[in-house]
Amino acid sequence: MCLKFESKGVLHQVLATCTINIVNYAHGAALGWVSPFLPLLQSEDSPLESGPVTVEQGSWIGSILCLGGLFGAIAYGYLTEKIGVKKSIASLCISNMSFWTIVYFGTSVYHLYLARFLAGVTGGGVIVTFPLFIADISDSKLVNYSTKLRIVTNIFNSHRVRGALGSILALAGNSGILTMYIVGDLLSYRTVPVVMISLPTLFAILMTLIPETPQSLLKQRNVAQAEQSLKFYSGLKSDQECTPEFKQQFEKLRNFILNSKLQSDRLQLQDFTSPAAKKGILIGIFLMFLNQFCGVFAILTYAVSIFSESGSTLSPGTSAIIMGAIQIVGTIASFIFIDLAGRKVLLLISTYGTGLGLTCLGVYSWMRSQSVDLTGLDWIPIASLSLTVFLFCVGLCNIPFFVLPELLPAKICNAGNTISMISITIFSFISLKILPILLEQIQLHGAVAIFASTCFIGGIVIALFIPETKGKNLVSPENV
């Protein structure tokens, strides 16, 4: 019976996480939209009435998404405290729908600026709210109410569930990017938004079936609903199924949220100046910097243009699709190894591996620019970029996001998470804005040299200063 309840609890957590990731999948498609369609927008066959897009305008189409992400991170950091995590996530469908609508009806580059800004709002909301939602529904040992079946605890403990659910975040976003590479190669400019708008519509419908997290409901003083929510995420259907351990757990959670000094005190400056707080925030900002300035996100955004520059004999569209597929494989590998190898080990492997892959691409690109005979080596660009993307997805792509709640002190967890998410939107804006300019000024080999150097230096910082958080409890009633 215990195994049955714990299995249902994990199933409900997985289903809830998959449901919220529908909008993340749609956002991934919005991210990938630039790659297949920016070359079209810059050509003489541009679908815009304002004519072909210039290099400068193209860099703004790519990067303005990050300004929207900055706004979204701030806005959703506020909304999660006011209306709850689940309601905040549900509202993400509005900005995603708006993106596809404007792309369909837009006739000038300024319409695309607005569309990409709104797509960024969705992304900012995703990176702020999703880690909080996953932490809430998978923490506090929601699947561990029995002291009799220890083997069940080992299989379904909250740390493994949290790591697996966190990996779905990257898997859904990367799948959306791959989908856009494929449909962008097959469907017309105006057809794509008509097809893709079905995703946020489905998301809005399914979100009505997902309960708010127990923690958010208790913060809103909805005790009865919070208990029902905890039952759902624990796999319990009726009061008869509630064990004494469950009731004790809920009372601890209730007392912690409603009465703890941790929750009742307002945030003050000294909350951010403790050694643990400063270390957690600095590590969070550093990981966001490394996530963006390793260059992979920028490369994925401009994938078709990058492959045109690289000298690959495959068509740019086909190369982008292959790289997108490798991205999915890397994310699945992260899903498998995240709680076996540990966060820090995967971060090190991912960071140095990403730097190595970029170095291979840079050397090939430089040799090509020097007119070196590379006959028979035209497979190197797709191979090196595939290696780069695979190893990026193993660690750097997703670990920085859901490791933050494991690093930050409980009281400043939401605020610290928002600070880190704001920082990544700024870093992302810079990397996306400068890459097209770097490609024009110092060519591909110069651009990837900068990104590879960042990876190698970042690996040293990870090895020396970032702790392993595998198996660490998030704040819970049991720690009070």
Q: What descriptors fit this protein?
A:
23 helices, 480 residues, mainly alpha, disordered C terminus, disordered N terminus
SSE blueprint:
Blueprint: H1 2-32, H2 34-41, H3 55-83, H4 85-90, H5 92-105, H6 109-138, H7 150-155, H8 158-186, H9 191-196, H10 198-206, H11 214-219, H12 223-234, H13 244-259, H14 261-264, H15 275-293, H16 296-301, H17 303-310, H18 316-337, H19 343-369, H20 380-394, H21 399-407, H22 413-441, H23 443-465
How would you explain this protein's 3D organization?
By secondary structure, the protein is mainly α. The protein has 23 helices and no strands. It has helices at 2-32, 34-41, 55-83, 85-90, 92-105, 109-138, 150-155, 158-186, 191-196, 198-206, 214-219, 223-234, 244-259, 261-264, 275-293, 296-301, 303-310, 316-337, 343-369, 380-394, 399-407, 413-441, 443-465. Helix 1 (2-32) runs antiparallel to helix 10 (198-206) and helix 3 packs antiparallel against helix 22 (413-441). The chain is globular. The chain starts with a helix and ends in a 15-residue tail after the last helix.
Which class best fits the helix and strand makeup? mainly alpha
H/E element sequence: HHHHHHHHHHHHHHHHHHHHHHH
Distance between the termini: 30 Å
The biggest beta sheet is recorded as: none
- How many strand elements? 0
Strand portion: under 5%
Helix fraction by DSSP (H/I, runs of at least 4):
over 70%
In the predicted model, the low-confidence regions spanning at least 5 consecutive residues are: 1-5, 140-159, 475-480
Mean pLDDT: 82
Cα shape: globular
* Rg over CA atoms: 23 Å
Determine the number of helices (DSSP H or I, runs of at least 4 residues): 23
